Amino acid sequence: MQTQELKNVASQVRRDILRQVHACQSGHPGGSLGCTDLLVGLYFNTMKLAQDANGNVVFNMSGNQEDVFYLSNGHISPVMYSVLARRGYFPVKELATFRQLNSRLQGHPTPHEHLEGIRIASGSLGQGLSVAIGTAQAKKLSNDTSTVYCLMGDGEQNEGQVWEAAMYAPHHKVDNLIAFIDENGQQIDGPTEKVMSNRDLEAKYKAFGWQVLRMDGNDMEEVINTLAHAKSLLGQGSPIMILMKTEMGAGVDFMMGSHKWHGVAPNDQQLADALAQLNETLGDY
Amino acid sequence: MKFTYETKKDTRSGFGAGMEYLSQNNPKVVALCADLIGSLKLEAFIKNSPERFFQTGIAEANMIGISAGLAIGGYIPFATTFANFGTGRVYDQIRQSVAYSGKNVKICCSHAGLTLGEDGATHQILEDIGLMKMLPSMVVINPCDYNQTKAATIAIAEYEGPVYLRFGRPVVPVFTPEDQKFEIGKAIHLIEGTDVTILATGHLVWEAIQAAEILEEKGIKADVLNIHTIKPLDTAAILASISKTGCVVTAEEHQINGGLGDSVAQFLSQNHPTPQEFVGVNDSFGESGKPADLMEKYGLNAAAIVEKSIKAIARK
Ligand SMILES: Cc1ncc(C[n+]2csc(CCOP(=O)(O)OP(=O)(O)O)c2C)c(N)n1
């Protein structure tokens, strides 16, 4: 896809995020908006996904012979659900059921209700990178040359399990893995710097044996180019980490620049103000 | 006796009020939190005693270990987060560094059970009472309203030993007295009756009171006890009630496996075999939804207690 087309998809995804969260008056818009460009870039451009003869995506739990993405920071489920639906994994109108009783779109993603596109439950932070590494190793064992991707939050880096996984992947030469950290500098109790400083993530991951890249996660062109560059570095004995600077709430002016919108839904007026800033490119559900 | 209430409040705010009291009245109390200060209502404690608060970041396992170390140094740590992350996620840290090592750590958790609502099953732990009560020496408390949670918070600071204090997110009727004294392990007799014993804990206590009123209209007199402490269980109070009624319903916002009902059944089977019915989640995970809708779907409300009471009576 051309960059402009990807930007159009991202605009629609941002609308979907806001409308999902608004409808049930709960959920996490801030991180979802910040990570929209990455997920759109991955699913609509970079990832090699299993498709049927008509070119429609098909979901296989195993993910064999296709690229696999894991969302470790499961609270940003609205962006995950929108991107999966818009990519064709399940009906877009199902987004209207987000967080409601008897929905497959649970507050945090889960395979428990058999939602196409979700392979593992996340929501309890710090567990996704381990799962991604395991899948990457399964691919190696099966001579499957596709790639595994995993997104984490910067607050999520507080969890010890992240660093157990960070140690393991280079040790086992898991070089078919590209991970991301959403460096929006925010978590629930305030700026990450104040709550529990990550200090220098680049130096830390390098010391653990990762190749580390940086990108502006809200610049679609840069996202696409950095992903392409990262792929060219695969197969060289070490996993790749992309430190992604984003703006929490990106795309909606009054949601940017603080942690206030981490887990708060907009009211009717705020929704209208936010939607006015985002073009309806693919049609609202 | 008729129970009434003027306000509804969340039990976690009762915890916050208890912590505010402790910040002013017990210099040995320290608080820890894993990036959820607002959800745990710790703002007042932190404002009063910033030097006695430790932000751990999203690192619950570390928080338990730090707490054990603080306890060795003579402080009384209150380690706080959501119930799923404060129990299940860090079970071995609690087991080894707190329970087995006999450390005076208070694990205080909000958002227990289904009633946290929309966040869904990843956060809705329904196994925490079981996990914690299985640990030798661990005291397990699940208060029913704002006032009782505040009183329990203050009381556990005076008790020497590991405690798990469980509370929640939704606003529920405040019906227990404001100035109550909280006695760990002492059940509270709420309603006198002779036909069926209802033993309820946490958010289900108010539902049990409602159930008793519905049963009364049907001519059934329920004996209702507030079992705020699941361990140690007030077996004397339970036995006294069951000797009158001859059947029992237990009610809790928890899996039936491993919950209050389990403890009651274990005790009664050895001491006074009694027909028992269980109101609890029956071996399934929760899901996203509005708290009241979830309690309805999973059979955890007054209507369910009424139904089980009638069943228990029929089995006498
Ligand atoms: C193990 C665990 N502890 C606590 C939480 C509660 N929680 C949800 S999101 C969050 C903050 C996450 O920060 P970050 O990873 O930076 O994500 P962002 O706020 O940027 O979306 C916390 C503490 C959780 N979901 N899991």
Please describe the structure with a list of short key phrases separated by commas or semicolons:
heterodimer, A: 285 residues, alpha/beta, Rossmann fold, 10 helices, globular, B: 316 residues, 2 domains, seven-stranded mixed beta sheet, five-stranded mixed beta sheet, 14 strands, binds thiamine diphosphate
State the separation between the terminal residues of chain B, measured CA to CA.
26 Å
Most extensive interface between two protein chains, with residue counts: A-B, 32 and 32 residues
Output the structural class of chain B: alpha/beta
Number of domains of chain B: 2
| Main sheet: strands, sense, barrel of chain A | 5 strands, parallel
CATH top-level class of the largest domain in chain B = Alpha Beta
**Structural classification of chain A:** alpha/beta
Unreliable residue stretches of chain B:
none
Distance between the termini of chain A: 22 Å
The outline of chain A comes out as globular
Mean pLDDT score of chain B: 98
Strands of the widest sheet of chain A, in order across it, are 1-2-3-7-6
Structural domain tally of chain A: 1
Q: Helix coverage percent of residues of chain B?
A: 40-55%
What does this structure look like?
The complex is a heterodimer of chains A (285) and B (316). Chain A has one domain: Thiamin diphosphate (ThDP)-binding fold, Pyr/PP domains (Rossmann fold), CATH 3.40.50. Chain A contains 10 helices and 7 strands. With 316 residues, chain B is of the alpha/beta class. Chain B has a 7-stranded mixed β-sheet, with helices on both faces. A 5-stranded mixed β-sheet of chain B has the order 9-11-10-13-14, with helices on both faces. In chain B, strands 1-8 form a two-stranded antiparallel ribbon. The mean pLDDT of chain B is 98. Classes of the chains: A alpha/beta (285), B alpha/beta (316). The interface between A and B is medium-sized, with 32 and 32 residues. Thiamine diphosphate sits at the interface of chains A and B. Thiamine diphosphate (TPP) sits at the interface of chains A and B.
